[in-house]
Amino acid sequence: MPSAALVPGIALVGCPNCGKTALFNMLTGSRQKVANYAGVTVERKEGGLLTPEGRHVRVLDLPGTYSLRGRSPDERVTRDVVLGLMDGETLPEALICVADSTNLRLVLRLVLELKALGRPLILALNMIDIAERQGCRIDVDRLSTELDLPVVATVAVRRDGIDGLLNAIDALPWRSLSSTAAHWREPTSQEIRAAHRQAERILEACAFRPGDQGLTNRLDRVLLHPVFGVAILLAVLFLMFQAVFAWANPLMDAIKAVFDLLNQEVRILLPDGMLRSLLTDGIIAGVGSVLQFLPQIVILFLFIILLEDFGYMARAAFLMDRLMGGAGLHGRAFIPLLSSFACAIPGIMAARVIENRRDRLTTILVAPLMTCSARIPVYTLVISAFVPERAVGAGIGLQGLVMFALYATGILSALSVAWVMKRLIWRQAAEPFLMELPAYKAPMLSNVLLSLWQRAEMFLRRAGTIILAMMVLIWFLSSFPGAPAGATDPAIDYSIAGMVGHWLEPALRTVGFNWQIAVALIPGMAAREVAVGALGTVYALSATGDEVGQALQPILAAQWTLPTALALLAWYVFSPQCASTLAVIRRETNSWIWPTVTFAYMLALAYLAAFLAFHIAQWALA
Amino acid sequence: MLDGSREADREENSEALPLSLRRKPWRGRVVALTPVETGGVPWSELERRLLEMGFVEGARLEILHEGPVRRDPIAVRVDDCTIAIRRRDAAAIVCQEDRV
C-alpha cells in the first residue's frame, strides 16, 4: 500500500441518520482507524478502499450535518475538513454526499451548498432499496442532469450495492484535481430559503415522490404515546439496567477469577519482594479491577447501539426532554446518567450520544454523582454497622430507607449541579431543541458488532495505558516506604499514603474522620470499594475479600461514633476518589481541565456534605 | 352580505397563529417565521436552524405527537420528514390551517 500522504482521500458527508456509517463500513470493511480529533471530543474514522481500477483511496467518515454552518463541534469538524481548515488533516480530493433516498428534501440543500464549493462531488442515494419498498420514486438520471453531478443509487447493506459508487469514484477527474482550499461563507436566511426553492424545483423536475412512512407512524403512535410510550421507555431502561447489573455479573466474576488466579500464580512463582508486590497488588489487582467493567460496558453499548440504529434513541430523548430539561440537561442525557448507576465509566462513554458539546460536558461532569455499584460495599458496611435493622413502616426497613436516601441524594445533587452549571457557569442561552425523528430501521448485525468492537477496544486501550499508570502510582503511594523492622502498626501506616493520611487528618477531623479513615481514602482512589479493604488493612485485619466487611463491622461500631459514620456516608455520596472515572473523563474530553474540575467540585461537595452530616448529627444527639 | 360573513368565518378558522399554540391533530402550512424571545440563541441563528430543518414558508405541517409533560415537545411532519421541536422554539413558526 502506498504511503498515506500519496493516497488521495475522499470524505463522506451527509445528514444524520442517512446510513452514512453503514456505507462507510461497506466501503472500507473492518480496516478502520478510530481516533479523536485533537482538542475536540469528535470521533475521527478513516478507512481505505481499492476501486475496480486498482486505485487506493482513503475514506474519511465525517459527522452528520444539515449544513456547513457548524452549529456543534461535530459539525464544525465536518466543515473544517471539507474546507481544508482542519489542523493535521489534508483537504480531501473529493466529497461523497450521502443521502437517505426516502428523505431527499433537506439533504438537497446540503448538496447545493457542497456543490458551490466547486470540489469534485458525488451524490450517493443511499438506502434506495428501502425507498423503493416504501413506494418512493425518483428519476436518478434527471437528478444527475439537474444537479450536474454524478448521482448513484447505493444499498449500504449489500456488497453489490456499492458497485455503482465505486465506478463513480473511478470516473472522478483524478488527474486534474486541485488541492486548493475552497471558498465558503455562511449563507444568510434568504439564501437558505432560495436553496429550498431550488431543491423544491429539482424534486418536482425529477418526479420525486416521498416514501410511505406508515409503519414508522404506527409505531410512533405507541412508542411516543404520553402513557404507553413512557411505560415502554421505562421498561426498556429497566431491561437495560437489569442487563448491565445482573447479566454482566457472571462474566465479571469470571474475569475477577482469572485475575485472582493470575495473582496467586505470580505469588507462588515470585519471591516476596517489591516486584511481586508491584505485579500482584499493583498491576494485576489494579487492571483487573478495571477490566471487570468490560462486560458491563459491552452490554450497555450493545443496548445503546441497537436503540440508536433502530431509531429509538431520538424517541427516548423526545419523551424525556421536558423532565431532563428542567435541570438543564438534554433529553439524551437520560441514558448515560442511568448507566452511571452501574458504573460512571460506561455512563461517561455513553454521553457520546449527545451532540452538543456543553450538554455533553454537563452530563459527563454529573455522571459520577449517580450512585455507582462501587459505592455499595461502603454503604453496606457502614449502614450494617450503625443503622439498626428496624421496620419504619409496612415492609420498609430503616436500613433500606437510608440506602434509598443515599441514592436519592445522589440523583438530586446530579440534577442540581447540572442546573447550576447551565445557569451559572455556561451562562448559556438554552439551545433550541430541534431534532429529526428518523424512520425506524432494522439494525444490521455486522454494523452493530463493528461498533461494539470499536467501543470495547477503546476501553481496553484506556485500561492498558492511563488507568494502568494510575494503578501503579496508587500502589506506589500505598507501599513506599515499607514498614521498618519490628514495626507494630500496619505497613500502610508508614507509606506515603499513610503520611498523607496523617497529614490530612486535621482537615478531615472537622468532618469527624479519624486517621484510619483518612489513610483508607487514598488507596480508595483506585476504586471506591477498595476503601473497605483499606480500612481492613488499617485496622490490621488479616481477613480478605468479603470477610473484611463482616469482621470490620463490630470494630467500626465500637470505634466510630454515629456522626462519624453518617459523615462518611455523606462523603461517599459525592466522593471524588475514583481514578478510572477521572481517567475516562480525561480521555473523553481530551483535556485535563474537566477531570480536575470534576475532582475539585466533588471534593468540595463531599467535604461540605460530610461536615454538615457530622455537625448536624452531633447537635441532634447532644 | 351572506357570502361576506361566511368568508369572515373562514378567515377566523384559518387564522395565522404560532405553531406552539396548535394542538394535535392539526394540519396546515408555514406562513412566516417571526422573531420571538426564546431566551435562547439569537434570532438570526434560530431562524436559519428552523429553515435548515425544513420550516420554510409554504412547508406542509402536521402535528403527529405531543410530549408527555405539558404536551411538550411536539413531533411535526414537515413536508417529508418528522421533526421534534419544543413549543418554546415553535413559537417562531407562524402557520395557518389548511382550508378544507
Task: Name a few traits of the molecule.
heterodimer; A: 622 residues; alpha/beta; Rossmann fold; seven-stranded mixed β-sheet; two-stranded antiparallel sheet; B: 100 residues; alpha+beta; SH3 type barrels; 3 helices
Q: How would you describe this structure to a colleague?
A:
The complex is a heterodimer of chains A (622) and B (100). By secondary structure, chain A is α/β, with parallel strands linked by helices. Chain A is built from 25 helices and 10 strands. Chain A has helices spanning 20-28, 73-83, 104-115, 128-133, 140-147, 163-170, 189-205, 214-223, 228-269, 274-291, 294-310, 312-325, 334-339, 344-350, 357-366, 376-386, 398-425, 445-479, 496-509, 515-521, 530-538, 546-559, 562-574, 579-589, 593-621, and strands at 9-14, 32-36, 43-50, 56-61, 94-100, 121-126, 151-153, 391-393, 396-397, 434-436. Chain A has a 7-stranded mixed β-sheet, sandwiched between helices. In chain A, strand 2 and strand 3 form a beta hairpin. In chain A, helix 8 (214-223) crosses helix 9 (228-269) and helix 23 (562-574) runs antiparallel to helix 25. The relative contact order of chain A is 0.08. Chain B has a 6-stranded antiparallel β-sheet. Chain B has 3 helices and 6 strands; from the N terminus they run H-E-E-H-E-E-E-H-E. The two termini of chain B are 22 Å apart. The chains are: A alpha/beta (622), B alpha+beta (100). Chains A and B meet through helix 3, helix 7, helix 8, helix 12 and strand 10 of A and helix 2, strand 3, strand 4 and strand 5 of B.
